């Protein structure tokens, strides 16, 4: 596996994500238009932000765990398993609940750091700086780590799999295409996140995660 082959795999991943990505971008644009045009909707989001400020990191954990772990399993059971729940669904949920919940806490902490580093503004220079740091530093680290952990789980937590995970081949064949696919989807998403007021950034990111799960569940129709 060389870099040229990795680029081909990444290109296929980007093309596969084009249709769901365009639908997700349309949903995000609709969300932004409603936010800018409806005082009632802004007030509703502000209530969510106030609740999140009172609860703190437990809110971040739970909302990401629900959208990242519970929602996918429910959709899988209803639409792909004919409403038949299995033990594997429970295992998937419990493991995903922990991983996605920790991602929620980490994401909340990172958004706060971005505010400290670059300020709370949403001008284009600040937006592009935050998006660049998010997608070129934070996202690769978190996505590659999470993907490696799920790969480790798929190998029944065997230690030998880490030789493969830490190899250049694994990065070129798995991680790099994953990052390209995520960039295609999440660059518009995190731009919207950083456009929002600071207290709303994590709640909006969780909504994007919800949209992401819904779009990919119904358009890809696969259990991955």
Keywords for this entry:
85% helix; 9 helices; 224 residues; globular
Can you characterise this structure?
It is a single chain. The model has no long low-confidence stretch (mean pLDDT 84). This protein has one domain. It is mainly α. The protein is built from 9 helices and no strands. The longest helix has 32 residues. Helix 2 packs parallel to helix 8, helix 4 runs antiparallel to helix 5 and helix 6 crosses helix 8. It is globular.
How many DSSP E strands? 0
Order of helices and strands: HHHHHHHHH
Radius of gyration, in Å, reads 18 Å
Global structural class: mainly alpha
* Stretches with pLDDT under 50, minimum 5 residues: none
Using the alpha-carbon principal axes, give the shape.
Answer: globular
Helix content: over 70%
Question: What would you say about this model in short?
Answer:
The protein has helices at 3-16, 18-37, 39-55, 57-80, 87-118, 124-154, 161-165, 168-195, 201-220.
Secondary structure: elements and pairs:
Blueprint: H1 3-16, H2 18-37, H3 39-55, H4 57-80, H5 87-118, H6 124-154, H7 161-165, H8 168-195, H9 201-220
């Amino acid at each position: 596996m060389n870099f040229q082959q990795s680029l081909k795999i990444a290109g296929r991943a980007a093309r596969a994500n084009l249709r769901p990505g365009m639908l997700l971008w349309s949903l995000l644009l609709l969300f932004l238009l409603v936010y800018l045009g409806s005082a009632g909707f802004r007030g509703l989001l502000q209530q969510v932000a106030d609740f999140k400020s009172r609860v703190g990191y437990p809110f971040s954990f739970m909302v990401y765990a629900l959208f990242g772990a519970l929602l996918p399993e429910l959709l899988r059971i209803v639409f792909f398993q004919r409403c038949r729940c299995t033990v594997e669904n429970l295992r998937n949920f419990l493991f995903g609940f922990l991983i996605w919940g920790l991602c929620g806490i980490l994401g909340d902490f990172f958004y706060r750091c971005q505010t400290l580093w670059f300020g709370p503004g949403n001008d284009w220079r600040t937006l592009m700086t935050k998006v660049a740091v998010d997608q070129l530093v934070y996202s690769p680290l978190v996505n590659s780590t999470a993907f490696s952990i799920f790969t480790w789980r798929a190998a029944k937590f065997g230690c030998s799999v880490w030789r493969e995970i830490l190899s250049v081949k694994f990065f070129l064949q798995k991680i790099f295409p994953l990052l390209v696919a995520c960039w295609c989807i999440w660059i518009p998403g995190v731009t919207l996140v950083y456009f929002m007021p600071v207290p709303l950034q994590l709640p909006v990111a969780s909504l994007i995660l919800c949209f992401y799960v819904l779009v990919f569940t119904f358009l890809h129709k696969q259990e991955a």
